[in-house]
Structure formats: structure tokens, C-alpha cells
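This entry is listed below:
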Amino acid sequence: MTKPQAGFTLLELVIAIAIFALLGVACWRLFDGVIRAERSSSAHEQALRDVQRAVALIERDVLHLQTSAKHLGLTLNANQLNLRRANWRNPLGQPRSELQDVSYQVQDGVLWRYSRDLEGGEVQTQKLLSDVSDLRWRLYDRDVGWRNAWPTGKAAPKGMPQALELQFSAGRFEQLRRVILLPEGG
């Protein structure tokens, strides 16, 4: 007598292949979901870093605001912030040769920083933030409260503003608000 062959039937092989195929598809979908989440997280993190870098640069410029009896050092007109900054605080009030005029404005959805030294060198342009849909500046006046403009000359308010408020929307971030206390206003 011959011994019957031992092995798998065709039906058992088809069922095993189907199970392995289902497990493979499930693993692929899980892996694809993890990759998509990681990409989304990385894009969100990069956008947040861009916003933080732009706000940190604005804050650094504002904290190095330079004022004098002849020049206020700060103007705000039509959502354009202009200021004069020094490279570091000068507690003795001695003149510095490294003053810069800095301006911030939005053009075509991009927040730009323009700077020039007082000797009349060329204007340096820096792209701070893309996809800016809304940007508003306000200055806090101790007597009046928040002001949308801070003119110079005869229309200038008395004293220095106490704080600068920056409100903007950029990319996936809506209505971000940052209030910076001004060094001369305190």
C-alpha cells in the first residue's frame, strides 16, 4: 500500500494567501497613516518655527528701540511699523554709530523687514513670513489706550507708547496676538 501524500489542499492555500494579503493591506494602510501624520506634524512644526522666528525678530528690534529728544524712534502709519534700533541697550545714553532704521510691512501676503543704517547704505530686505492674510499693529498710549497710528511732528502724542501689539494671521494660524512691552514706555 502506498502512503497518502501529506500536504495542504488548494482551498487551504487560497485561504492562507487571502489572510496574508489582508494583513499586508492592513499593515500598509497603518504605515501610510503614520507617514501622513508625520508629514503633517512636520509641516505644522515648520510653520510654527517660521512664525516664532518672525515674532522673535520683531521683538528683538522693538526691544532695541532707540529714542532721543530729536527723534522719537517709532512711527506707525497705515499698518506699517517704522522704528530706529540700536544694536544693544545703552544705559549711559552715549551716541552709537550702529543705528538702523527698520520698517515692517506686508506686500502680496509676505511680511517684509527693511533695514538701513543711518549713513545711507543700501536697504537690506528680509522676507520674514509668507502667506500673511492679515496684519495689524497697535501701540498703547497711557492716556488714550490702544492707537492704530502713532504719527510724528505736531500730531505726535506726548510721551512714548507703553506697548506694541501685533495681531496677524499666517497660513494655518489664525489671529495670533503678541504684546511687547516697550523699553522706553515703562
In short: The first helix runs from residue 10 to 63. The chain has a mean pLDDT of 84.
